[in-house]
Amino acid sequence: MAITLFFRRPEPSAVQPEPWPEIGETWKPEGVNIVQRYYNQAHAVVLVYTAAQSDRHNVACLGCHFTKASNKFGTRSWLILSEAAGAANEHATSCRALPREIPARPDDGTVRERLRTWVSNYRNRGADEQLWIETLDPIRLTLQRTDEWIEAALQQLAVDQPEALRTERCEYSGRVLYYARRLSED
To answer: Whose CA is closest to 139, among 169, 102, 111, 108?
Structure first.
């Protein structure tokens, strides 16, 4: 009888804790893969995420407006997972911002306007400037759209405003390339 007391194990609990959506634990924005979460000193969430089809990692704090997407030192400009995790952990240990509301998913018209503004900001008087969808990664939490949706919106923008954006298909990969048109000399 004494031996059975030592070998008893508690029954596993069938009750699962409720998720806390106000701190971002169950928030899964469209077009983004959340890789890691850290909590700052006031329990706001610091996210490490990638765009849906990318290995470039980004860091964003849901308490303050801290973001990090690039590495100034090194052979590449983007963050690998270990660098992003280090930056997120470092920020989380020093940030005291209270948790903010989870960013609401903007309507399609708002996202199209942000993309139009993004294209306009790349236009210059020198030459057409190639645009990379990866440069949108730091603001993917506010766009909350998939790569396919963004590409379709950019292709429509090229049709609607050919003086601002042109597309070209790469002869080697077949991928569509986007170019912000140069400004006219008027």
So the answer is: 111
Start-end of H helices in 103-172: 108-122, 140-143, 147-160
**Each residue's pLDDT tens digit, 32-88:** 888 999 999 998 999 999 986 678 899 999 999 899 988 777 667 788 899 999 999
Token pair 């270990």: residue:
82
Sheet holding 176-180, edge to edge: 129-131, 176-180, 165-169
Task: Enter the tokens of residue 108.
Answer: 């399609």
CB crowding 49-76: b at 16 or more within 10 Å, else e: bbbeebebbbbbbbbbebbbbeeeeeee
10 Å Cβ neighbour count for 133? 16
pTM as predicted: 0.77
Can you read off the two tokens belonging to residue 170? Answer: 């790469």
Residue 84 DSSP one-character state = H
pLDDT tens profile 14-23: 545 455 555 5
Taking only the tens place, the pLDDT of each residue in 108-133 is 999 999 999 999 999 888 889 999 88
